[in-house]
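R.M. (postdoc): so does anyone remember the format we settled on? I'll just put the structure tokens first.
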């Protein structure tokens, strides 16, 4: 485990390096400017002896160390890093922000309309908290009490991916997100999100990602960003983020979508491949290691195996499947 302050026009500055031997004992080296007193030296010794376990991170001991640079990094991980898995739903978060911020709501609807999914807008339906629960249903009344406690603590509670409970003007309310479509006569029709396609839902998840990346210093890590999305829609979404000159955040994602191998969108050092070796370990390497020409069709080269990181299908080709009798 190590932490440096990286300098563009000067040498990197060591904050700490920590190495752990086979017995789980750590040896920690701090930059000279961070260990100034005997008390600091004693704390490092305690960390090495027993305060820091082999499976713990030194950065997790920021409160004990009280080193501002370490604390800033820890706070960044807590507040500025968001990880979205293939099954992660951000709809509830989108509902919460749209409820609290009318300007964000306008931006979200403008963005959704631009992608032409058939959904003309999103809206938040408000219901009275007590009316939402059946007074004769003991189980729902128990859930009601649990939700009230959660709202008091966190200011909101999640009932479902598209339903949240919040306190508004001193009263508890239920907020449910609905999508709006237009029928053949251009009349607006409300849809529940359960009636939307997986692709549209996935795109709604990314609305918050897109707007947050534009306005805030937030890093989103998205696993399998292309799940349920049309390749052209995904390409447009990524290009839109990359073309924005005022982007404040960062997007890091994994994908199997070869159409995103496009050097008109990404630099060579922004494209990385993941390949398993014979032992099952995954190796990461950058496209820049191959030094390709800038006019090269990266997508075609990748699919032909020029850059590795493609499935080994020889065994499939040797399968001798026989037709079965009807």
């Amino acid at each position: 485990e190590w932490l440096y302050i990286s300098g563009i026009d000067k040498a990197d500055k060591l904050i700490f390096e920590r190495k752990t031997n086979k017995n789980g004992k750590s040896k920690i080296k701090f930059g000279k400017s961070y260990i100034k007193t005997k008390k600091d030296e004693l704390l490092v010794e305690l960390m090495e002896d027993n305060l820091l376990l082999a499976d713990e991170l030194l950065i997790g001991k920021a409160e004990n160390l009280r080193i501002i640079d370490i604390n800033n990094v820890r706070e960044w991980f807590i507040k500025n890093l968001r990880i979205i898995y293939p099954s992660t739903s951000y709809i509830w978060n989108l509902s919460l922000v749209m409820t609290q911020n009318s300007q964000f709501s306008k931006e979200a609807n403008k963005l959704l309309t631009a992608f032409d999914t058939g959904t003309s807008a999103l809206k938040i339906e408000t219901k009275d908290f007590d009316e939402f629960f059946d007074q004769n249903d003991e189980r729902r009344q128990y859930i009601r009490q649990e939700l009230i406690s959660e709202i008091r603590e966190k200011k909101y509670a999640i009932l479902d991916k598209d339903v949240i409970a919040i306190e508004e003007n001193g009263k508890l309310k239920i907020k449910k997100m609905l999508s709006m479509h237009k029928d053949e006569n251009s009349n607006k029709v409300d849809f529940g999100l359960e009636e939307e396609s997986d692709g549209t839902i996935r795109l709604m998840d990314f609305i918050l990602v897109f707007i947050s990346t534009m306005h805030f210093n937030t890093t989103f890590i998205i696993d399998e960003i292309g799940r349920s999305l049309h390749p052209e829609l995904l390409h447009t979404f990524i290009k839109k983020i990359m073309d924005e000159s005022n982007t404040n955040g960062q997007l890091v994602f994994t994908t199997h979508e070869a159409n995103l191998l496009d050097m008109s969108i990404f630099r060579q050092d922004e494209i990385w491949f993941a390949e398993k070796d014979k032992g099952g370990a995954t190796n990461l390497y950058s496209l820049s290691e191959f030094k390709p020409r800038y006019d090269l069709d990266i997508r075609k080269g990748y699919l032909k195996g020029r850059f590795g990181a493609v499935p080994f299908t020889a065994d499939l080709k040797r399968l001798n499947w026989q037709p079965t009798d009807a």
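R.M.: ...and that's the designed sequence above, right after the tokens. Also worth knowing: The chain has a mean pLDDT of 87. The first strand starts at residue 2 and ends at 5.
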